[in-house]
Amino acid sequence: MPLSEQEQRLLEEMERSLYHNDADFVASVGASRLRPNYRSIAIGVLLAVVGIVALIAGVALQLLWLGIVGFVVMFTGVLLALSPGKAMKGMSTPADPGRRPTQARSDQGFMDKLNDRWDRRQDGQ
Fold first, then answer.
1. Tens of pLDDT along 60-113?
2. Residues 6+ apart with CB under 8 A from 52
3. DSSP 3-state of 35
4. Where are the domains of the chain?
């Protein structure tokens, strides 16, 4: 069920007030839009598996140095896989809430295009 005009105005007023009064909160919420880096995840998982194999081989063969190297490789792989991704391109910054994403049309998905068209229609453009 769509919002009435009064509810939309009230919601927009609350949003402007939030942007104006609590910029730190808006910045922290806006910064959480990250895209996962699949290459880092794949390499990290591969390193973790190699590290586990080396750790088990070090214990089985009673080679302390191989176990330690395996643990370090495994730990590095897990850290690499869990590292944060990159920020998404075209996202509006919290400091400028009215700005539209400036990415090319070919980069946008179908739903993004529909949402942009809907927003332009609502803004009267």
1. 999 999 999 999 999 999 999 988 776 555 544 444 445 445 544 456 677 788
2. 70, 74
3. strand
4. 34-87
Question: For residues 85 and 82, what is the distance between their CA atoms, to the nearest angstrom?
Answer: 9
**Which of these, 19, 16, 40, lies nearest to 30 by C-alpha position?**
19
Q: Please, what's the largest Cα pairwise distance for the chain? A: 74
Q: Which two tokens stand for residue 77?
A: 């792989």
Structure tokens belonging to residue 2: 């769509």
Question: How many other β-carbons are positioned within 10 Å of the β-carbon of residue 73?
Answer: 19
Between CA 77 and CA 70 the distance in angstroms is 11
CA distances from 24 to 19, 27, 88, 105 (A): 9, 5, 20, 31
- pTM of the predicted structure, to 2 decimals: 0.45
